[in-house]
Amino acid sequence: MCGIAGIFHCGTIKPVDPARIERMTDALAHRGPDGSGVWTAPGIGLGHRRLSIIDIAGSPQPMTSAHSPAVIVFNGEIYNYRELRSELAASGATFRTEGDTEVILAAYARWGVDCLSRLHGMFAFALYDGQKRELLLARDRLGVKPLFMARLADGSMAFASELKGLLAHPLLRREIDPLAVEDYLAWGYVPDHRSILSGVEKLPAGHYRILKHDTAPAAPVRWWDVSFAERRKGSVADLEAELLHHLREAVTSRMVADVPLGAFLSGGVDSSSVVALMAETSRDPVRTCSIGFDVAAHDETTYADEVARLFGTEHHSRTVGAEQFGAIDDLAAMFDEPFADASALPTWRVCQLARENVTVALSGDGADEALAGYRRQVFHAHEEQVRRLLPGSLRRSLLGPLAEIYPKADWAPRSLRLKTTLQSLAGDGGEGYASALAATPNALRQSLYTPDFARGIAGYRAEDRLIEVMQQAPARSGLDRAQYADLMFWLPGDILTKVDRTSMAVSLEAREPLLDHRLIEFAATLPDSMRVRGRQGKWLLKRAMRRYLPDQILFRPKQGFVTPIAEWLRGPLAGEAKAISSSAALARTGWFDSRKLAGLADAHITGRSDHSRLLWQLVMLDRSLRRLGVAT
Questions:
Q1: Which of 167, 381, 459, 504 is the right S-S partner for 479, CB 3.0 to 4.6 Å?
Q2: What is the mean pLDDT of the chain?
Q3: What's 509's domain CATH number?
Protein backbone atom coordinates (compact mmCIF):
# COMPACT_ATOMS: atom_id res chain seq x y z
CA MET A 1 0.00 0.00 0.00
CA CYS A 2 1.28 3.40 -0.90
CA GLY A 3 0.69 7.07 -1.56
CA ILE A 4 0.96 8.61 -5.02
CA ALA A 5 1.02 12.18 -6.28
CA GLY A 6 1.82 14.01 -9.48
CA ILE A 7 1.49 17.01 -11.76
CA PHE A 8 0.59 16.95 -15.47
CA HIS A 9 0.49 19.99 -17.76
CA CYS A 10 -2.55 20.09 -20.03
CA GLY A 11 -2.58 22.38 -23.07
CA THR A 12 1.12 23.13 -22.72
CA ILE A 13 4.39 21.51 -21.73
CA LYS A 14 6.30 23.17 -18.92
CA PRO A 15 8.95 21.80 -16.56
CA VAL A 16 7.74 20.26 -13.31
CA ASP A 17 9.71 21.10 -10.20
CA PRO A 18 10.78 17.83 -8.50
CA ALA A 19 10.80 19.60 -5.13
CA ARG A 20 7.09 20.37 -5.54
CA ILE A 21 6.33 16.69 -6.17
CA GLU A 22 8.42 15.76 -3.16
CA ARG A 23 6.44 18.11 -0.92
CA MET A 24 3.22 16.50 -2.11
CA THR A 25 4.50 12.99 -1.40
CA ASP A 26 5.97 14.05 1.95
CA ALA A 27 2.42 14.95 3.00
CA LEU A 28 1.56 11.28 2.31
CA ALA A 29 4.52 9.78 4.20
CA HIS A 30 2.18 7.88 6.56
CA ARG A 31 0.90 5.89 3.57
CA GLY A 32 4.40 4.77 2.66
CA PRO A 33 7.13 4.99 5.30
CA ASP A 34 9.41 2.42 3.63
CA GLY A 35 10.58 4.35 0.59
CA SER A 36 10.01 7.32 -1.70
CA GLY A 37 10.77 8.41 -5.22
CA VAL A 38 10.20 11.21 -7.76
CA TRP A 39 10.37 11.11 -11.55
CA THR A 40 9.98 14.08 -13.90
CA ALA A 41 10.03 14.73 -17.63
CA PRO A 42 8.82 17.71 -19.71
CA GLY A 43 5.24 18.42 -18.62
CA ILE A 44 4.97 15.52 -16.14
CA GLY A 45 6.06 14.68 -12.61
CA LEU A 46 5.24 11.55 -10.61
CA GLY A 47 5.88 10.87 -6.92
CA HIS A 48 5.51 7.83 -4.68
CA ARG A 49 5.65 6.77 -1.03
CA ARG A 50 5.96 3.03 -0.45
CA LEU A 51 4.67 0.64 2.19
CA SER A 52 6.48 -2.61 1.33
CA ILE A 53 4.12 -5.61 1.23
CA ILE A 54 5.19 -7.77 -1.74
CA ASP A 55 8.70 -7.99 -3.22
CA ILE A 56 10.02 -5.99 -0.28
CA ALA A 57 13.55 -5.56 -1.61
CA GLY A 58 12.47 -4.78 -5.18
CA SER A 59 9.75 -2.86 -7.06
CA PRO A 60 10.80 0.73 -6.31
CA GLN A 61 8.53 3.45 -7.67
CA PRO A 62 8.11 5.46 -9.82
CA MET A 63 8.80 2.43 -12.02
CA THR A 64 9.82 2.61 -15.67
CA SER A 65 8.97 -0.08 -18.20
CA ALA A 66 11.76 -2.25 -19.57
CA HIS A 67 10.10 -2.42 -22.99
CA SER A 68 8.41 0.93 -23.61
CA PRO A 69 8.65 4.58 -22.56
CA ALA A 70 6.08 4.16 -19.79
CA VAL A 71 6.31 5.09 -16.09
CA ILE A 72 3.88 4.23 -13.27
CA VAL A 73 3.11 5.16 -9.68
CA PHE A 74 0.68 2.70 -8.09
CA ASN A 75 -1.22 2.43 -4.83
CA GLY A 76 -2.85 -0.92 -4.04
CA GLU A 77 -2.52 -4.64 -4.62
CA ILE A 78 -3.20 -6.79 -7.68
CA TYR A 79 -4.19 -10.17 -6.31
CA ASN A 80 -3.95 -12.08 -9.59
CA TYR A 81 -0.59 -10.61 -10.57
CA ARG A 82 1.12 -14.02 -10.61
CA GLU A 83 -1.39 -15.43 -13.10
CA LEU A 84 -1.11 -12.31 -15.25
CA ARG A 85 2.67 -12.44 -15.06
CA SER A 86 2.67 -16.02 -16.36
CA GLU A 87 0.30 -15.13 -19.19
CA LEU A 88 2.36 -12.11 -20.21
CA ALA A 89 5.65 -14.01 -19.94
CA ALA A 90 4.24 -16.68 -22.27
CA SER A 91 3.70 -13.98 -24.87
CA GLY A 92 7.26 -12.68 -24.57
CA ALA A 93 7.27 -10.20 -21.68
CA THR A 94 10.27 -10.22 -19.36
CA PHE A 95 10.37 -9.01 -15.76
CA ARG A 96 13.05 -7.51 -13.54
CA THR A 97 11.09 -7.61 -10.27
CA GLU A 98 8.87 -10.04 -8.36
CA GLY A 99 6.02 -7.61 -7.59
CA ASP A 100 2.70 -6.56 -9.08
CA THR A 101 3.66 -3.03 -10.19
CA GLU A 102 5.73 -4.24 -13.13
CA VAL A 103 2.87 -6.56 -14.13
CA ILE A 104 0.59 -3.52 -14.60
CA LEU A 105 3.19 -1.93 -16.89
CA ALA A 106 3.44 -5.12 -18.95
CA ALA A 107 -0.34 -5.52 -19.04
CA TYR A 108 -0.74 -1.96 -20.30
CA ALA A 109 1.91 -2.54 -22.97
CA ARG A 110 -0.02 -5.60 -24.15
CA TRP A 111 -3.67 -4.49 -23.85
CA GLY A 112 -3.67 -0.73 -23.36
CA VAL A 113 -6.45 0.67 -21.19
CA ASP A 114 -8.31 -2.65 -21.58
CA CYS A 115 -5.81 -4.08 -19.09
CA LEU A 116 -7.99 -2.65 -16.31
CA SER A 117 -10.61 -5.38 -16.68
CA ARG A 118 -7.88 -8.00 -16.18
CA LEU A 119 -6.68 -6.56 -12.86
CA HIS A 120 -8.23 -8.19 -9.78
CA GLY A 121 -7.62 -6.05 -6.76
CA MET A 122 -7.66 -2.59 -5.23
CA PHE A 123 -5.76 0.16 -6.95
CA ALA A 124 -5.33 3.75 -7.95
CA PHE A 125 -2.49 4.47 -10.34
CA ALA A 126 -1.06 7.01 -12.74
CA LEU A 127 0.70 5.61 -15.83
CA TYR A 128 2.48 7.94 -18.22
CA ASP A 129 2.77 6.67 -21.79
CA GLY A 130 5.80 8.47 -23.21
CA GLN A 131 5.05 7.34 -26.76
CA LYS A 132 1.48 8.69 -26.77
CA ARG A 133 2.49 11.53 -24.44
CA GLU A 134 -0.57 10.98 -22.28
CA LEU A 135 -1.32 10.11 -18.66
CA LEU A 136 -3.74 7.37 -17.63
CA LEU A 137 -5.34 7.80 -14.20
CA ALA A 138 -7.32 4.75 -13.03
CA ARG A 139 -9.25 3.66 -9.97
CA ASP A 140 -10.42 0.19 -8.95
CA ARG A 141 -13.94 -1.09 -9.48
CA LEU A 142 -15.42 -0.27 -6.08
CA GLY A 143 -13.22 2.63 -5.00
CA VAL A 144 -11.18 0.89 -2.32
CA LYS A 145 -8.24 3.17 -3.10
CA PRO A 146 -8.77 6.94 -3.46
CA LEU A 147 -7.54 9.47 -6.02
CA PHE A 148 -8.04 13.24 -5.74
CA MET A 149 -7.50 15.63 -8.68
CA ALA A 150 -7.46 19.42 -9.12
CA ARG A 151 -7.02 21.76 -12.08
CA LEU A 152 -4.59 24.48 -11.04
CA ALA A 153 -4.19 28.09 -12.14
CA ASP A 154 -1.09 27.36 -14.25
CA GLY A 155 -3.03 24.91 -16.44
CA SER A 156 -1.71 21.79 -14.78
CA MET A 157 -3.66 18.91 -13.30
CA ALA A 158 -2.42 17.78 -9.87
CA PHE A 159 -3.43 14.47 -8.29
CA ALA A 160 -2.77 12.67 -5.01
CA SER A 161 -3.99 9.76 -2.91
CA GLU A 162 -5.36 12.14 -0.29
CA LEU A 163 -6.47 15.76 -0.26
CA LYS A 164 -3.49 16.65 1.94
CA GLY A 165 -1.22 15.82 -0.99
CA LEU A 166 -2.96 18.49 -3.06
CA LEU A 167 -2.95 20.91 -0.13
CA ALA A 168 0.85 20.79 -0.25
CA HIS A 169 0.74 22.47 -3.68
CA PRO A 170 0.88 26.29 -3.34
CA LEU A 171 -1.46 26.91 -6.30
CA LEU A 172 -4.39 24.95 -4.88
CA ARG A 173 -7.31 27.26 -4.04
CA ARG A 174 -8.72 26.68 -0.59
CA GLU A 175 -12.30 27.73 -1.12
CA ILE A 176 -15.25 25.79 0.28
CA ASP A 177 -17.86 24.37 -2.09
CA PRO A 178 -21.20 25.22 -0.40
CA LEU A 179 -22.91 22.29 -2.14
CA ALA A 180 -20.43 19.99 -0.41
CA VAL A 181 -21.57 21.38 2.95
CA GLU A 182 -25.15 20.40 2.09
CA ASP A 183 -23.93 16.96 1.01
CA TYR A 184 -21.92 16.57 4.20
CA LEU A 185 -24.82 17.58 6.46
CA ALA A 186 -27.04 15.08 4.65
CA TRP A 187 -24.71 12.08 4.68
CA GLY A 188 -22.04 12.69 7.33
CA TYR A 189 -19.30 12.59 4.68
CA VAL A 190 -18.57 14.33 1.37
CA PRO A 191 -19.56 11.81 -1.33
CA ASP A 192 -17.33 10.97 -4.25
CA HIS A 193 -19.12 13.21 -6.75
CA ARG A 194 -17.99 16.26 -4.78
CA SER A 195 -15.14 17.61 -2.65
CA ILE A 196 -15.18 20.04 0.25
CA LEU A 197 -12.93 22.35 -1.81
CA SER A 198 -14.16 23.96 -5.02
CA GLY A 199 -12.14 22.79 -7.99
CA VAL A 200 -11.08 19.48 -6.42
CA GLU A 201 -12.49 16.25 -7.84
CA LYS A 202 -12.34 12.57 -6.93
CA LEU A 203 -11.86 10.07 -9.73
CA PRO A 204 -15.04 7.95 -9.42
CA ALA A 205 -14.76 4.26 -8.58
CA GLY A 206 -14.53 2.04 -11.66
CA HIS A 207 -13.42 4.95 -13.88
CA TYR A 208 -10.29 6.03 -15.71
CA ARG A 209 -9.24 9.39 -17.10
CA ILE A 210 -6.77 10.19 -19.88
CA LEU A 211 -4.87 13.48 -19.83
CA LYS A 212 -3.03 14.84 -22.88
CA HIS A 213 -0.54 17.67 -23.17
CA ASP A 214 -2.23 19.30 -26.16
CA THR A 215 -5.86 19.31 -24.99
CA ALA A 216 -7.98 20.12 -21.97
CA PRO A 217 -8.56 17.22 -19.54
CA ALA A 218 -11.07 14.68 -20.83
CA ALA A 219 -13.98 13.55 -18.67
CA PRO A 220 -13.62 10.32 -16.66
CA VAL A 221 -14.72 7.14 -18.47
CA ARG A 222 -16.50 4.31 -16.69
CA TRP A 223 -14.78 0.96 -17.23
CA TRP A 224 -16.74 -1.20 -14.73
CA ASP A 225 -20.26 -1.42 -13.39
CA VAL A 226 -22.27 -4.10 -11.62
CA SER A 227 -25.65 -5.22 -12.92
CA PHE A 228 -28.53 -6.43 -10.78
CA ALA A 229 -30.65 -6.96 -13.92
CA GLU A 230 -30.05 -10.70 -14.29
CA ARG A 231 -31.09 -13.57 -12.02
CA ARG A 232 -29.06 -16.68 -11.34
CA LYS A 233 -31.00 -19.94 -11.54
CA GLY A 234 -30.27 -23.00 -9.47
CA SER A 235 -31.14 -24.78 -6.27
CA VAL A 236 -30.39 -23.29 -2.89
CA ALA A 237 -27.66 -25.90 -2.44
CA ASP A 238 -26.05 -24.99 -5.77
CA LEU A 239 -26.13 -21.25 -5.09
CA GLU A 240 -24.79 -21.80 -1.59
CA ALA A 241 -21.88 -23.85 -2.95
CA GLU A 242 -21.11 -21.20 -5.57
CA LEU A 243 -21.18 -18.45 -2.96
CA LEU A 244 -18.85 -20.41 -0.70
CA HIS A 245 -16.47 -20.93 -3.64
CA HIS A 246 -16.32 -17.17 -4.27
CA LEU A 247 -15.78 -16.49 -0.57
CA ARG A 248 -12.87 -18.93 -0.35
CA GLU A 249 -11.28 -17.56 -3.52
CA ALA A 250 -11.62 -13.99 -2.28
CA VAL A 251 -10.10 -14.69 1.12
CA THR A 252 -7.22 -16.89 -0.01
CA SER A 253 -6.22 -14.49 -2.81
CA ARG A 254 -5.84 -11.73 -0.22
CA MET A 255 -3.59 -13.77 2.06
CA VAL A 256 -0.56 -13.33 -0.19
CA ALA A 257 2.01 -11.08 1.51
CA ASP A 258 5.71 -10.99 2.34
CA VAL A 259 4.94 -9.37 5.72
CA PRO A 260 2.89 -10.45 8.79
CA LEU A 261 -0.85 -10.71 8.07
CA GLY A 262 -3.94 -10.82 10.30
CA ALA A 263 -7.60 -9.84 10.48
CA PHE A 264 -10.03 -7.48 12.20
CA LEU A 265 -12.57 -9.44 14.26
CA SER A 266 -15.69 -7.74 15.59
CA GLY A 267 -17.63 -10.92 16.36
CA GLY A 268 -20.20 -10.13 13.65
CA VAL A 269 -21.09 -12.38 10.74
CA ASP A 270 -18.79 -10.79 8.17
CA SER A 271 -15.48 -10.54 10.01
CA SER A 272 -16.10 -13.92 11.64
CA SER A 273 -16.66 -15.47 8.20
CA VAL A 274 -13.37 -14.02 6.94
CA VAL A 275 -11.50 -15.33 9.97
CA ALA A 276 -13.10 -18.77 9.60
CA LEU A 277 -11.98 -19.03 5.98
CA MET A 278 -8.51 -17.73 6.83
CA ALA A 279 -8.18 -20.35 9.56
CA GLU A 280 -9.22 -23.04 7.09
CA THR A 281 -6.34 -22.06 4.79
CA SER A 282 -3.60 -20.92 7.15
CA ARG A 283 -0.96 -23.25 8.59
CA ASP A 284 -0.41 -20.95 11.57
CA PRO A 285 -2.92 -19.40 13.99
CA VAL A 286 -4.63 -16.37 12.45
CA ARG A 287 -3.73 -13.11 14.19
CA THR A 288 -6.93 -11.24 15.10
CA CYS A 289 -7.75 -8.02 16.91
CA SER A 290 -10.90 -6.31 18.17
CA ILE A 291 -12.01 -3.13 19.90
CA GLY A 292 -14.62 -2.87 22.62
CA PHE A 293 -16.45 0.07 24.21
CA ASP A 294 -16.89 1.29 27.75
CA VAL A 295 -20.70 1.26 27.24
CA ALA A 296 -21.88 -2.33 27.63
CA ALA A 297 -24.79 -2.05 25.19
CA HIS A 298 -22.35 -1.31 22.37
CA ASP A 299 -19.62 -3.77 23.28
CA GLU A 300 -19.21 -6.93 21.14
CA THR A 301 -15.91 -8.23 22.47
CA THR A 302 -17.50 -11.30 24.06
CA TYR A 303 -18.58 -12.47 20.59
CA ALA A 304 -15.15 -11.72 19.15
CA ASP A 305 -13.57 -13.70 21.99
CA GLU A 306 -15.89 -16.61 21.24
CA VAL A 307 -14.90 -16.70 17.56
CA ALA A 308 -11.21 -16.34 18.46
CA ARG A 309 -11.47 -19.36 20.77
CA LEU A 310 -13.38 -21.35 18.16
CA PHE A 311 -10.59 -20.97 15.58
CA GLY A 312 -7.65 -20.78 17.97
CA THR A 313 -6.54 -17.35 16.80
CA GLU A 314 -3.81 -15.25 18.34
CA HIS A 315 -6.24 -12.63 19.61
CA HIS A 316 -5.72 -9.09 20.92
CA SER A 317 -8.36 -6.66 22.17
CA ARG A 318 -8.60 -3.17 23.61
CA THR A 319 -11.35 -0.89 24.98
CA VAL A 320 -12.25 2.56 23.68
CA GLY A 321 -13.77 5.13 26.06
CA ALA A 322 -14.98 8.70 25.78
CA GLU A 323 -11.58 10.00 26.89
CA GLN A 324 -10.24 8.83 23.52
CA PHE A 325 -12.07 11.70 21.87
CA GLY A 326 -9.23 13.95 22.90
CA ALA A 327 -7.94 12.80 19.51
CA ILE A 328 -10.63 14.71 17.58
CA ASP A 329 -8.04 16.89 15.89
CA ASP A 330 -6.08 13.81 14.86
CA LEU A 331 -9.21 12.42 13.22
CA ALA A 332 -9.81 15.69 11.38
CA ALA A 333 -6.22 15.64 10.13
CA MET A 334 -6.63 12.05 8.97
CA PHE A 335 -9.61 12.74 6.71
CA ASP A 336 -8.90 16.33 5.55
CA GLU A 337 -12.53 16.65 4.47
CA PRO A 338 -15.12 16.66 7.26
CA PHE A 339 -16.03 13.06 8.11
CA ALA A 340 -18.57 12.25 10.79
CA ASP A 341 -18.88 8.47 10.87
CA ALA A 342 -18.28 8.12 14.61
CA SER A 343 -16.98 4.58 14.12
CA ALA A 344 -13.87 6.14 12.58
CA LEU A 345 -12.36 6.45 16.07
CA PRO A 346 -12.61 2.75 17.02
CA THR A 347 -11.62 1.80 13.46
CA TRP A 348 -8.47 3.85 13.88
CA ARG A 349 -7.82 2.27 17.28
CA VAL A 350 -8.26 -1.27 15.95
CA CYS A 351 -5.87 -0.39 13.11
CA GLN A 352 -3.33 0.82 15.67
CA LEU A 353 -3.76 -2.42 17.60
CA ALA A 354 -3.37 -4.51 14.45
CA ARG A 355 -0.24 -2.63 13.39
CA GLU A 356 1.49 -3.67 16.60
CA ASN A 357 1.48 -7.25 15.28
CA VAL A 358 0.90 -7.22 11.49
CA THR A 359 1.34 -5.06 8.41
CA VAL A 360 -1.70 -6.37 6.51
CA ALA A 361 -5.19 -6.96 7.97
CA LEU A 362 -8.26 -8.46 6.30
CA SER A 363 -11.64 -6.89 7.09
CA GLY A 364 -15.26 -7.97 6.71
CA ASP A 365 -16.39 -4.83 4.87
CA GLY A 366 -18.62 -5.23 1.82
CA ALA A 367 -20.97 -8.10 2.69
CA ASP A 368 -23.76 -5.80 3.87
CA GLU A 369 -23.74 -3.92 0.58
CA ALA A 370 -23.36 -7.01 -1.62
CA LEU A 371 -25.72 -9.41 0.17
CA ALA A 372 -28.28 -7.07 1.81
CA GLY A 373 -27.12 -7.04 5.39
CA TYR A 374 -28.28 -3.58 6.44
CA ARG A 375 -31.56 -3.21 8.30
CA ARG A 376 -32.47 -0.32 6.02
CA GLN A 377 -32.23 -2.64 2.99
CA VAL A 378 -34.47 -5.23 4.63
CA PHE A 379 -37.01 -2.54 5.61
CA HIS A 380 -36.85 -1.08 2.11
CA ALA A 381 -37.58 -4.48 0.55
CA HIS A 382 -40.72 -4.79 2.68
CA GLU A 383 -41.74 -1.18 2.04
CA GLU A 384 -41.47 -1.80 -1.70
CA GLN A 385 -43.95 -4.65 -1.31
CA VAL A 386 -46.41 -2.22 0.29
CA ARG A 387 -45.81 0.33 -2.48
CA ARG A 388 -46.64 -2.29 -5.08
CA LEU A 389 -49.94 -3.06 -3.32
CA LEU A 390 -51.09 0.52 -2.67
CA PRO A 391 -51.40 3.12 -5.45
CA GLY A 392 -49.17 6.16 -5.06
CA SER A 393 -52.15 8.53 -4.82
CA LEU A 394 -53.58 6.53 -1.91
CA ARG A 395 -50.25 6.41 -0.11
CA ARG A 396 -49.73 10.14 -0.50
CA SER A 397 -53.26 11.07 0.61
CA LEU A 398 -53.51 8.61 3.51
CA LEU A 399 -50.00 7.94 4.83
CA GLY A 400 -48.63 11.43 4.22
CA PRO A 401 -51.04 13.15 6.64
CA LEU A 402 -50.54 10.34 9.17
CA ALA A 403 -46.81 10.93 9.08
CA GLU A 404 -47.32 14.63 9.72
CA ILE A 405 -49.29 14.09 12.94
CA TYR A 406 -47.41 11.03 14.25
CA PRO A 407 -44.89 11.99 16.99
CA LYS A 408 -41.17 11.56 16.30
CA ALA A 409 -40.73 9.61 19.57
CA ASP A 410 -36.95 9.20 19.77
CA TRP A 411 -37.51 7.90 23.30
CA ALA A 412 -39.86 5.08 22.25
CA PRO A 413 -38.97 1.46 21.44
CA ARG A 414 -37.93 1.02 17.79
CA SER A 415 -41.19 -0.80 16.93
CA LEU A 416 -43.18 2.32 17.89
CA ARG A 417 -41.12 4.81 15.90
CA LEU A 418 -43.48 4.81 12.90
CA LYS A 419 -43.10 8.41 11.75
CA THR A 420 -40.13 7.73 9.47
CA THR A 421 -41.76 4.61 8.02
CA LEU A 422 -44.99 6.47 7.25
CA GLN A 423 -43.05 9.30 5.62
CA SER A 424 -41.12 6.81 3.54
CA LEU A 425 -44.21 4.89 2.40
CA ALA A 426 -45.96 8.10 1.40
CA GLY A 427 -43.28 8.74 -1.23
CA ASP A 428 -41.56 6.62 -3.87
CA GLY A 429 -38.82 4.10 -3.21
CA GLY A 430 -35.91 6.40 -4.05
CA GLU A 431 -37.16 9.15 -1.76
CA GLY A 432 -37.77 6.66 1.02
CA TYR A 433 -34.35 5.06 0.79
CA ALA A 434 -32.58 8.41 0.58
CA SER A 435 -34.38 9.45 3.76
CA ALA A 436 -33.39 6.19 5.48
CA LEU A 437 -29.74 6.66 4.52
CA ALA A 438 -29.48 10.36 5.36
CA ALA A 439 -27.74 11.28 8.60
CA THR A 440 -29.68 14.54 8.91
CA PRO A 441 -33.16 14.94 7.35
CA ASN A 442 -33.62 17.62 4.72
CA ALA A 443 -36.16 19.60 6.75
CA LEU A 444 -33.82 19.76 9.76
CA ARG A 445 -30.88 20.83 7.59
CA GLN A 446 -32.88 23.61 5.99
CA SER A 447 -34.03 24.85 9.40
CA LEU A 448 -30.40 25.32 10.48
CA TYR A 449 -29.18 27.27 7.45
CA THR A 450 -29.06 31.05 7.46
CA PRO A 451 -31.00 32.78 4.64
CA ASP A 452 -27.72 33.73 2.91
CA PHE A 453 -26.45 30.17 2.86
CA ALA A 454 -29.80 28.81 1.68
CA ARG A 455 -29.76 31.28 -1.23
CA GLY A 456 -26.19 30.26 -2.02
CA ILE A 457 -27.06 26.60 -2.62
CA ALA A 458 -30.04 27.68 -4.75
CA GLY A 459 -32.39 24.84 -3.90
CA TYR A 460 -29.77 22.10 -4.21
CA ARG A 461 -30.79 19.01 -2.23
CA ALA A 462 -28.25 16.29 -1.43
CA GLU A 463 -30.75 13.43 -1.68
CA ASP A 464 -31.42 14.05 -5.37
CA ARG A 465 -28.07 12.59 -6.46
CA LEU A 466 -28.69 9.32 -4.58
CA ILE A 467 -32.21 9.10 -6.01
CA GLU A 468 -30.76 9.57 -9.49
CA VAL A 469 -28.30 6.72 -8.89
CA MET A 470 -31.18 4.45 -7.86
CA GLN A 471 -33.31 5.44 -10.85
CA GLN A 472 -30.49 4.69 -13.28
CA ALA A 473 -29.45 1.41 -11.61
CA PRO A 474 -29.37 -1.71 -13.80
CA ALA A 475 -31.86 -3.44 -11.50
CA ARG A 476 -35.11 -5.41 -11.31
CA SER A 477 -36.36 -4.74 -7.79
CA GLY A 478 -36.37 -2.10 -5.09
CA LEU A 479 -33.89 -4.19 -3.11
CA ASP A 480 -31.58 -4.24 -6.13
CA ARG A 481 -31.71 -0.47 -6.41
CA ALA A 482 -31.03 0.02 -2.71
CA GLN A 483 -27.99 -2.28 -2.83
CA TYR A 484 -26.73 -0.64 -6.01
CA ALA A 485 -26.93 2.77 -4.33
CA ASP A 486 -25.05 1.45 -1.32
CA LEU A 487 -22.31 -0.01 -3.51
CA MET A 488 -21.93 3.06 -5.70
CA PHE A 489 -22.60 5.88 -3.23
CA TRP A 490 -22.36 4.90 0.44
CA LEU A 491 -19.54 2.35 0.17
CA PRO A 492 -16.83 4.51 -1.47
CA GLY A 493 -17.90 7.72 0.28
CA ASP A 494 -18.18 6.42 3.83
CA ILE A 495 -17.02 2.86 4.52
CA LEU A 496 -13.99 2.66 2.24
CA THR A 497 -12.91 6.21 3.02
CA LYS A 498 -13.01 5.40 6.73
CA VAL A 499 -10.98 2.20 6.39
CA ASP A 500 -8.45 3.66 3.97
CA ARG A 501 -7.65 6.76 6.02
CA THR A 502 -7.58 5.10 9.44
CA SER A 503 -5.45 2.17 8.27
CA MET A 504 -3.07 4.30 6.23
CA ALA A 505 -2.68 6.71 9.16
CA VAL A 506 -0.80 3.93 10.95
CA SER A 507 0.83 2.46 7.80
CA LEU A 508 -1.38 -0.63 7.83
CA GLU A 509 -2.69 -2.23 4.65
CA ALA A 510 -6.38 -3.19 4.96
CA ARG A 511 -7.80 -5.67 2.47
CA GLU A 512 -11.52 -6.32 1.85
CA PRO A 513 -12.03 -9.86 0.51
CA LEU A 514 -15.83 -9.52 0.56
CA LEU A 515 -15.46 -6.80 -2.07
CA ASP A 516 -13.88 -9.14 -4.60
CA HIS A 517 -15.60 -8.06 -7.81
CA ARG A 518 -16.41 -11.63 -8.83
CA LEU A 519 -18.20 -12.13 -5.52
CA ILE A 520 -20.03 -8.81 -5.98
CA GLU A 521 -21.09 -9.70 -9.52
CA PHE A 522 -22.35 -13.12 -8.42
CA ALA A 523 -24.25 -11.71 -5.44
CA ALA A 524 -25.98 -9.17 -7.69
CA THR A 525 -27.59 -12.01 -9.65
CA LEU A 526 -29.07 -13.76 -6.62
CA PRO A 527 -32.87 -13.75 -6.35
CA ASP A 528 -34.20 -11.38 -3.70
CA SER A 529 -35.21 -14.38 -1.58
CA MET A 530 -31.58 -15.53 -1.41
CA ARG A 531 -30.65 -12.19 0.11
CA VAL A 532 -33.61 -11.30 2.32
CA ARG A 533 -36.10 -13.63 4.02
CA GLY A 534 -38.51 -12.19 6.55
CA ARG A 535 -36.44 -9.82 8.68
CA GLN A 536 -33.22 -11.66 7.95
CA GLY A 537 -30.66 -10.11 5.60
CA LYS A 538 -27.63 -11.93 4.10
CA TRP A 539 -29.73 -15.08 4.16
CA LEU A 540 -27.59 -17.17 1.80
CA LEU A 541 -24.32 -16.07 3.41
CA LYS A 542 -25.55 -17.12 6.85
CA ARG A 543 -26.75 -20.44 5.50
CA ALA A 544 -23.39 -21.06 3.79
CA MET A 545 -21.42 -20.23 6.94
CA ARG A 546 -23.39 -22.50 9.30
CA ARG A 547 -20.77 -25.19 8.74
CA TYR A 548 -18.20 -22.84 10.31
CA LEU A 549 -19.99 -20.56 12.77
CA PRO A 550 -22.51 -21.13 15.59
CA ASP A 551 -26.03 -19.73 15.33
CA GLN A 552 -25.45 -17.26 18.17
CA ILE A 553 -22.90 -15.54 15.92
CA LEU A 554 -24.82 -15.86 12.66
CA PHE A 555 -28.32 -14.99 13.80
CA ARG A 556 -27.96 -12.56 16.68
CA PRO A 557 -29.39 -9.07 16.01
CA LYS A 558 -27.11 -6.97 13.85
CA GLN A 559 -25.22 -4.45 15.96
CA GLY A 560 -22.57 -2.96 13.72
CA PHE A 561 -19.46 -1.10 14.78
CA VAL A 562 -21.52 1.55 16.57
CA THR A 563 -19.80 4.07 18.83
CA PRO A 564 -21.83 5.14 21.89
CA ILE A 565 -21.55 8.77 20.84
CA ALA A 566 -25.06 9.69 22.04
CA GLU A 567 -24.22 8.68 25.63
CA TRP A 568 -20.82 10.36 25.48
CA LEU A 569 -22.29 13.66 24.21
CA ARG A 570 -24.65 13.67 27.20
CA GLY A 571 -21.82 12.89 29.58
CA PRO A 572 -18.08 13.42 29.22
CA LEU A 573 -18.42 15.14 25.82
CA ALA A 574 -21.35 17.41 26.74
CA GLY A 575 -18.96 20.36 26.70
CA GLU A 576 -18.19 19.68 23.04
CA ALA A 577 -21.91 19.70 22.25
CA LYS A 578 -22.51 22.99 24.08
CA ALA A 579 -19.54 24.71 22.46
CA ILE A 580 -20.62 24.04 18.90
CA SER A 581 -23.04 26.99 18.74
CA SER A 582 -20.29 29.45 19.66
CA SER A 583 -17.42 27.89 17.73
CA ALA A 584 -15.33 30.57 16.09
CA ALA A 585 -14.68 28.53 12.94
CA LEU A 586 -18.34 27.72 12.33
CA ALA A 587 -19.53 31.18 13.35
CA ARG A 588 -17.25 32.85 10.78
CA THR A 589 -18.86 30.91 7.95
CA GLY A 590 -22.32 32.43 8.45
CA TRP A 591 -23.85 29.13 7.37
CA PHE A 592 -25.84 28.25 10.50
CA ASP A 593 -28.27 29.87 12.93
CA SER A 594 -26.31 29.75 16.20
CA ARG A 595 -29.44 29.89 18.37
CA LYS A 596 -30.80 26.77 16.71
CA LEU A 597 -27.49 24.96 17.18
CA ALA A 598 -27.59 25.82 20.88
CA GLY A 599 -31.14 24.49 21.09
CA LEU A 600 -30.12 21.20 19.48
CA ALA A 601 -27.30 20.74 21.98
CA ASP A 602 -29.57 21.51 24.94
CA ALA A 603 -32.29 19.12 23.72
CA HIS A 604 -29.76 16.33 23.32
CA ILE A 605 -27.96 16.84 26.65
CA THR A 606 -31.24 16.93 28.59
CA GLY A 607 -32.44 13.78 26.83
CA ARG A 608 -35.46 15.35 25.10
CA SER A 609 -34.15 14.30 21.66
CA ASP A 610 -31.29 12.38 20.15
CA HIS A 611 -29.24 14.78 18.03
CA SER A 612 -25.95 12.95 18.50
CA ARG A 613 -25.25 12.35 14.80
CA LEU A 614 -25.87 15.96 13.85
CA LEU A 615 -23.88 17.33 16.78
CA TRP A 616 -20.98 15.06 15.91
CA GLN A 617 -21.20 16.21 12.29
CA LEU A 618 -20.92 19.83 13.41
CA VAL A 619 -18.01 19.07 15.72
CA MET A 620 -16.08 17.39 12.91
CA LEU A 621 -16.98 20.12 10.41
CA ASP A 622 -15.65 22.71 12.83
CA ARG A 623 -12.37 20.82 13.28
CA SER A 624 -11.93 20.36 9.54
CA LEU A 625 -12.47 24.04 8.83
CA ARG A 626 -9.84 24.94 11.40
CA ARG A 627 -7.32 22.63 9.75
CA LEU A 628 -8.07 23.57 6.15
CA GLY A 629 -7.75 27.32 6.78
CA VAL A 630 -10.27 27.96 4.00
CA ALA A 631 -12.05 30.94 2.54
CA THR A 632 -15.81 30.73 3.18
A1: 381
A2: 91
A3: 3.40.50.620
